[in-house]
Design goal:
Number of helices: 10
CATH class of the largest domain: Alpha Beta
Distance between the termini: 39 Å
Radius of gyration: 20 Å
CATH topology of the largest domain: Rossmann fold
Largest sheet: 8 strands, mixed
Structural class: alpha/beta
CATH superfamily of the largest domain: P-loop containing nucleotide triphosphate hydrolases
Shape: elongated
Oligomer: single chain
Length: 264
């Protein structure tokens, strides 16, 4: 994954007529970027929130998040791009923001939220590359505009939001566990966060019933045969990295519901 900068992201946003900010349905608030939203506003761009991976949460929860964001004034829809659910609704929603055809759309968001999946779902089999985007050197080698419909063009370069925030936020926002000097504290924090909303998450994912983060990592390492060669002790660092990766692969059942204060 190429590291992004705000300057790179601004190039993508500046080129678009409409900016899609993709959120993870399990964690819409922690995968949301107010800084991106302020950037889009400052550049005079329309912005729409896309709650992706909505197949991982109950529909009524997705509806609540949609109402919350719409009450803030953001057009919002939820979809599951991996299963191509909601692609037609997204096309229709994009057209509602079209002042005059054609419209150029940029897909933005943190790593792992499904930006490329949404781009590919919209591109489909009949899209065609049209022209390179001026002034985009350094972000990708040859960013292109793709015609995804008669009147809709898409920038074929996901606008990756630079990862910021505390340790838990950085993990949820897609920091690779391989880049962490010690993944154990990060995984422990993530485990506690998941258990807060689903105490059975690790029993369902790994058949481990312990609620202690370090015990969970230890048991997972022992079950997978991950041990230090010299001492035979469980290699919990590898278990920690696996748990972080499995979280992003949606192998650990979990979602954070809207707080009561947000849904009034």
């Amino acid at each position: 994954m190429q590291l992004a900068t705000w300057r790179m992201l601004a190039r993508i946003v500046r080129r678009a007529d409409l900016v899609l900010e993709v959120l993870d349905a399990r964690e819409p608030l922690r995968t949301r970027s107010r800084r991106l939203e302020r950037m889009a506003e400052a550049l005079g761009k329309n912005l729409m929130l896309i709650i992706n991976k909505s197949d991982l949460i109950p529909r009524e929860v997705a509806e609540k998040w949609k109402r919350i964001f719409e009450d803030e004034g953001f057009p919002t829809l939820y979809m599951a791009a991996r299963s191509h659910l909601g692609t037609g609704m997204l096309r229709s929603a994009i057209r509602k923001h079209m002042e005059e055809p054609p419209i150029i759309v940029a897909v933005t968001g943190y790593p792992k939220v499904g930006k490329s999946t949404i781009i590919n779902a919209l591109k489909g089999r009949h899209s065609a590359s049209t022209s390179p985007i001026p002034g985009s050197h350094g972000y990708t080698r040859h960013p292109q505009l793709y015609r995804v419909d008669e009147d809709i063009y898409m920038i074929d370069s996901p606008g990756t939001i630079p990862i910021e925030g505390g340790l838990l936020e950085r993990i949820i926002r897609g920091t690779s566990p391989e880049t962490l000097e010690d993944p154990v504290p990060a995984a422990a924090m993530l485990i506690r966060h998941v258990l807060r909303f689903n105490p059975a998450a690790f029993r369902q994912a790994y058949s481990i019933s312990s609620l202690d983060p370090y015990r969970i990592m230890e048991q997972l390492a022992l079950r997978r045969g991950w041990r230090y060669k010299k001492t035979g002790e469980p290699l919990i660092e590898e278990a920690a990295r696996t748990i972080i990766r499995d979280y992003h692969k949606a192998k650990i059942p979990f979602y954070e519901p809207p707080a009561p204060s947000l849904t009034r």
